[in-house]
Amino acid sequence: MHKVFIDGAAGTTGLEIAARLEGRSEFALITLDDERRKDASARREALNETDVAILCLPDDAAREAVALIDPASGTRVIDASSAHRTAEGWCYGFPELVGADRVADARRISNPGCYPTGFLALVAPLVREGLLPADWPYTVNAVSGYSGGGKALIERFEAGGAPAFRAYGYDMAHKHLPEMKRHAGLEHPVIFAPAVVPAYRGMIVEVPLHLGAMANDPSADTLRDALRAFYAGSKVVTVRDEGVPGELLLEQDAAPWDGIELAVFGNEGGWNARLVARLDNLGKGASGAAVQNLNLLCGLPETAGLQL
Ligand SMILES: NC(=O)C1=CN([C@@H]2O[C@H](COP(=O)(O)OP(=O)(O)OC[C@H]3O[C@@H](n4cnc5c(N)ncnc54)[C@H](OP(=O)(O)O)[C@@H]3O)[C@@H](O)[C@H]2O)C=CC1
Ligand SMILES: CC(=O)N[C@@H](CCC(=O)OP(=O)(O)O)C(=O)O
């Protein structure tokens, strides 16, 4: 039996992780009541007595949680926040990209952000294989359900009078930029244009590309085939067959989903392509990814308990 403590268990990501662990006899959840869940000494105790701590906290509180762990304790950490995604000594918790064995052996795992999960799933393997240039000026357009912003954004969108569409990130300093650049192996920061719509969960992340302007001029079919080969055997990441849909939709009441679907759409003539990832920000974008990594840490089947 593996002891698991979710620090931030009352938040959006924490609650979804607990729901995925319900009924799993391999785990015993350590819980703090409402009065003590923000109490540093109660958290210190829980953080040090658990086998795995999953941090579902704002960045500062996640850094504080790590500092509360005695380095001599056996506690292993999965951090869902963006505090450690490019930090030394942390394994980036994207098993399909870094290798499931590396995640399984790590003591400190930093889970990818939801938007970077879509971007990196599309671009990192293609850059690694030399099919897309590392020095290209990439753009990422994305739309997310409002649960991506945690309790504060959920309250804003559910209070009445919610906006029909919220574009943001105009300072071009979004906290996801460093991990997108680092883990895709890029030479330049991407331009990231995120937006939120009044649906609870789900996201579409898109990378538009002028393939014809690249020196190697790859075809959309080549990119799709390379992604399919890279993720062959994955139950979590799938690649859509060739063919262009009329539209891609985010459902208003989508069920939780821990997979991610990638697509490559090319135009006639082959100059342009749109790389598209569809996922649940609370699934592979957060809580599903945390459970996948927890399974790996505990030597359990990687997709146990996931909603695929
Ligand atoms: N939502 C998403 O789609 C994704 C979220 N993440 C990341 O996961 C982390 C959690 O996000 P999310 O669940 O959405 O956020 P929420 O705001 O929904 O939840 C955060 C929780 O942390 C609690 N908390 C804050 N400070 C402390 C503290 N010092 N000690 C203990 N608990 C504390 C909050 O308490 P209170 O209830 O009192 O406010 C709240 O319950 C964030 O870093 C976020 O960026 C990552 C990927 C996707
Ligand atoms: C819709 C929305 O507000 N999304 C959040 C990101 C959610 C997420 O991925 O969390 P991390 O920041 O921990 O990666 C944002 O843009 O800041």
Automatic annotation (TrEMBL):
SUPFAM superfamilies: Glyceraldehyde-3-phosphate dehydrogenase-like, C-terminal domain (SSF55347), NAD(P)-binding Rossmann-fold domains (SSF51735). This is N-acetyl-gamma-glutamyl-phosphate reductase. GO terms for molecular function: N-acetyl-gamma-glutamyl-phosphate reductase activity; NAD binding. One of its GO terms (cellular component) is cytoplasm. The active site is at C114. Its EC number is 1.2.1.38. InterPro entries: AGPR, AGPR_AS, AGPR_dimerisation_dom, AGPR_type-2, NAD(P)-bd_dom_sf, Semialdehyde_DH_NAD-bd. It is found in: Cytoplasm. GO terms for biological process: L-arginine biosynthetic process. CDD domains: AGPR_2_C. Belongs to the NAGSA dehydrogenase family. Type 2 subfamily. Its main location: cytoplasm. Residues 3-105 form the Semialdehyde dehydrogenase NAD-binding domain. Gene3D superfamilies: Dihydrodipicolinate Reductase, domain 2, NAD(P)-binding Rossmann-like Domain. Keywords: Amino-acid biosynthesis, Arginine biosynthesis, Cytoplasm, NADP, Oxidoreductase. Pathway: Amino-acid biosynthesis; L-arginine biosynthesis; N(2)-acetyl-L-ornithine from L-glutamate: step 3/4.
